[in-house]
Amino acid sequence: MVQPLNIEEYRSVYEPGKVECASTGEMRPLEEIIGQERALRALQFGLEIREPGFNVYTAGAQGTGRRTAVRSFLDQLAKGKPRARDWVYVHNFQNQYEPNAIALPAGRGPRFKEEMKRFIEEARRALPRAFESEEYTKRRDETLQSLQGKRTDLIARINQDAQAAGFVIQMSPIGLLTIPVINGKPVPDEEFINLPDDVRADVQRRRDALNTELRSTLRQVQEIERQGAEAVTNLNRDIALYAVGNLVTELKEHYADVPEVPAYIDAVQNDILENLQAFLGVPEQPGAPPQFQAFVRELPFRKYEVNVVVDNDGAEGAPVVVEQNPTFQNLIGKIEKEVQFGIFTTDFTMIRPGSLHRANGGYLVLDVEDLLRAPLSWEGLKTALKTGEVLIEEPGERMGFITAKTIKPEAIPLDIKVTLIGTPMLYQLLYQMDPDFKELFKVKADFDTVMERNDENAGKYADFMCNLVREEKLRHLDREAIARVIEYGSRLAEDQQKLSTRFAAVADLIREANFYAARDGAEQIGKGHVTLAIEEKVYRSDLIQEKIEEYIRRGIFLIDTAGEKVGQVNGLSVIGLGDFAFGRPSKVTASIGVGREGIVDIEREAALGGPIHTKGVLIINGYLNNNYARDRPLSLSARLVFEQSYEGIEGDSASSTELYALLSALSGLPLKQYLAVTGSVNQKGEVQAIGGVNEKLEGFFEVCKAKGLNGEQGALIPASNVQNLMLKEEIVEAARAGKFRIYPVRTIDEGIEVLTGVPAGRRREDGTYEEGTVNYLVDRRLREMAEAMRGFQPMAAK
After folding, report:
1. What's the rounded Cα separation, in Å, for the pair 675 and 696?
2. Are 307 and 349 in contact (CB under 8 A)?
3. Which of 39, 37, 31 is nearest to 61 (CA)?
4. Residues pairing with 499 in the sheet
5. Same domain, yes or no, for 512 and 559?
6. CB atoms < 10 A from the CB of 142, how many?
7. What are phi and psi of 48, to 5 degrees?
8. Taking the alpha carbons of 455, 457, 462, 466 in that order, is the dihedral positive or negative?
9. Which of 539, 559, 578 is the last residue of a domain?
10. Within 13 Å, how many C-alpha atoms sit on residue 282's CB side?
11. Distance CA 367, CA 326 (A)
12. In the Cβ-directed half-sphere of 174, how many Cα atoms lie within 13 Å?
């Protein structure tokens, strides 16, 4: 018969003597990420390979330190990479609605902006001075005087020709008029029509000849005026170039290594020459408010500004950006608007970068849940990665809505590595449902929730504690407290041979222990403070557990912890409340009768049982067929139920419990009610491991303690779950005092022997079982039921 576990197997104690130092104050700070070698190798590969599509999905459970590990890894990696370029947007003088993007070496974006600002300010001072100089006035007058003389000569000649032909020339709003002169007097039109026909014909002939000559002369005058205007324009350009030429040359020399900048400066210079009047003074608008006057004065110069969207000045290596709120505009960038005198306006100076811009040339970290929750963000990110550029656009345009006309900034080439942080489930969903995902995120970095519990990793665990207390200025942990936290790591891992990598939970425990140490006025955190923090954490969340235990103690929930009963056994289940899980015992009963229905799962019939639980019940049916129905059909109608269970039931961890209840009902042998059972079973009768073994055992222990420990109580667990035991010290002490026992079972036969005190019995070569054994009694009862069923069938036929 199976013997109870040794006390040492109830909990894997970490001896304080194994801790190298007396406290965390004597330890070295942790300089590495522990327990995630596989994930770090994947990260290193994904972040260093340059081919497109090798972005990284970091998968892991909450609290495993994914974000901290990724950020720490990236910070170290980025330091060895070159600094990313600065990016600026400038006015496009060919098309103002499509601003140009210019890349500059790191740190030179802001300097270029300031130098352009100084250049325009100096131009606004230098140009008025140049055009107000005596030299300019003299050259302009000389140019205009020579042309004015030619114009005057032409006009004088045409007046002479007009007089000789008998006409005078008058200016009018519609041009030059030729008025005939008769008898020394100009003849108006109303008098002209009254002249004799022959006189009028003669006058008209002479007028036509004069008009022909006049038109020719006017063309010459216009040409002279055009030459004059051109000469003045050329003079103005020469003066302006002289005034700003040195500034332009100096600025272009500063940025000769960036070809786009000299080309832009040339465009600025040409625009200045085309718009000199703006630099020479804008006439004020009579009656306009002062703020409008200031707006009009400065408006022509706004196009010469430089909008720095990415500034990597002061950066050490490549940028690492962690976007906490990855909305579409926070990711892609946006174009802001402003209201000027009641009108919405925008221009290139209101382009704002997104995290893709800031991380360009480096690394971007995103939480995949936040990314998928934000409308358009996932599609925007994929578009940027697929096209290799980031294009700022209005969200409405991307959705196909009709929007007001706005600017369309030039797209910026994208050189980036994106790391998504999420759960393994989201990775699987994206991989299966989104064809782009597998092409864009080809590297998966899996963060494990546990690591091996050995002396090396235990030492690193202690180093982690040292880091935490130093960074957050907490009290140091003494040797016993360190050992207790290491044991807590195994409890979180639910494995004596593992340590949890859920460092967020470990850190919270230390913070809470520090609180209790501070309250006690202790200089260091001791084992008692850690234990108290664990207990208080449970107490804050175990109200429902206490209520259930109270109902059991008062007899509202019927649970027996003494005596023996047929067809009834205490099963163990786990109830999860989000932040807290606890074990609850439930009475499992079985009833049998002659029939063909087989085993009926009442939980399933009541729509309370899940598919895995139903599978467990079907496996029980397979076990019965394999052991008792090789030469005859089962003539059984059985009912299995969790008594007083009003919530859904899922999982197969109670399948062995249900089978024990059924075997008891068939054999007539009573089961010990002071022993609870957990474990799944296969069709061969092997008891298999289950989850939550610690919570289940602790839950039953609390019920036994509440109803009174009698020295007989305990539980049956799968032998394969012994390695998962990290029970409370209270249970260990109770076991040491002989008040609680745990039986590790490998098969149903071993378990039924413990529960009944009767040998299970082996099958003989002829297919029968040894007399007086459990299996013999079950087999005999099933044969009797089969005979009864055969006897009933003829009667039913009549």
Report:
1. 12
2. yes
3. 39
4. 451
5. no
6. 11
7. -100, -25
8. positive
9. 539
10. 16
11. 8
12. 2
- Residues 514 and 639 grouped into a single domain: no
Alpha helical stretches, state H, 574-672:
602-605, 611-628, 655-667
For residues 556 and 481, membership in a common domain is answered with no
Tokens, residue 446: 């899996």
The Cα 499–Cα 487 span in angstroms is 8
- Kindly give the pairing relationship between strand 343-345 and strand 389-390: unpaired
Six token digits for residue 364:
């971007």
Query: Can you tell me the distance from the alpha carbon of 245 to that of 231, in angstroms, rounded to the nearest whole number?
Result: 20
The verdict on 569 and 484 lying in the same domain is no
What is the DSSP track for 114-157?
HHHHHHHHHHHHHHHHHHTSHHHHHHHHHHHHHHHHHHHHHHHH
Q: Look at residue 307 and give its three-state secondary structure.
A: strand
Q: Rounded to an integer, what distance in angstroms lies between the CA atom of residue 760 and that of residue 648?
A: 33
Q: Give the CATH number of the domain where residue 729 resides.
A: 3.30.230.10
Residues 588 and 524 grouped into a single domain: no
With H, G, I as helix, E, B as strand and everything else as coil, classify residue 98.
coil
Residue 331 CA: distances (Å) to CA of 293, 328, 363, 370, 590: 38, 5, 13, 12, 60
Of 23, 500, 586, 653, the catalytic one is 653
Q: Which residue, chain included where needed, has tokens 């557990």?
A: 545
pTM: 0.80
Active site residue 653: yes
Measuring CA to CA, which residue among 570, 576, 560 is closest to residue 716? 570
How many whole angstroms separate alpha carbon 238 and alpha carbon 459?
78
Residue 347 belongs to a domain: no
Q: What is the mean pLDDT of each run of 10 residues along the chain (798 residues)?
A: 91 89 81 83 89 93 81 88 94 93 94 92 84 77 72 76 76 68 73 73 78 77 74 75 83 90 92 83 59 66 92 90 94 87 82 95 95 93 95 80 79 95 94 94 91 90 90 91 94 92 92 94 93 92 85 84 90 85 87 76 62 75 81 78 72 81 90 92 89 91 89 93 93 93 94 92 84 88 81 55
- φ and ψ at residue 439, rounded to 5 degrees: -85, -25
Same domain, yes or no, for 579 and 528? no
379/655 Cα distance (integer angstroms): 46
DSSP lists the bridge partners of residue 626 as none
| Distance in angstroms (rounded) separating the CA atoms of residues 225 and 154 | 12
> Has 720 been annotated as catalytic?
no
CA geometry: angle 276, 277, 279, nearest 5 deg: 70
User: Do 11 and 732 form a contact (C-beta atoms < 8 A)?
Assistant: yes
- Residue 291 phi/psi, 5-degree rounding, is -65, -30
Which three-class secondary structure state does DSSP give residue 591?
strand
The catalytic position among 303, 587, 696, 705 is 696
- Supply the pLDDT for residue 798: 44
Q: What pLDDT does residue 606 have?
A: 60
For 256, the token pair is 């000769």
CB half-sphere exposure, 549, CA atoms < 13 A: 18
Task: Decide if 114 contacts 303 (C-beta within 8 A).
Answer: no
